[in-house]
Amino acid sequence: MTRRPRDPAAREESAGGVVFRRGRELDVIVAEQIDRQTGERTLRLPKGKIEAGETLEAAALREVAEEAGVRARVVELLDEVRYRYVHRRRRVTVTKRVHFFLMEHEAGVPAPADREMERVFWCPIEAAVARLTWGAEAEVVRQAARRLREGGA
Fold first, then answer.
1. What is the pTM of this model?
2. Dist. CA 85–CA 13, nearest whole Å
3. Collapsing DSSP states into helix, strand and coil, what is residue 90?
4. Among 8, 92, 93, 139, which has the minimal tally of Cβ within 10 Å of its Cβ?
């Protein structure tokens, strides 16, 4: 039996970023990871859990640095993504909330900076929308593309 999402231990809050650069194309950073729960290869945005006392923005910047090996600056808050997943080891259904920020690349070459990612790379923004494993993250990238094309950043 799994615990209910009302259990505080069954809630997670994370933050991450849609890191972009302008060049010949508009590119974003995408990370490839082997999912710990399923063992499947996934393409996703850099994100991670918020540490005690950390702001959403600080957590997003830290996670981008840890997972993608780059420094970025926050431009604006994008959408929040909510979903549930079953944590197989703990046998609990986790309700997760992820806050995504639009971020401009400042320094560094994308590369796995911790042991979570298999590879990290620049991807044209439209290709990223098509290639990301989870539709909610693809929608956040679509939102970022609209903001960038409207001159929001």
1. 0.88
2. 13
3. coil
4. 8
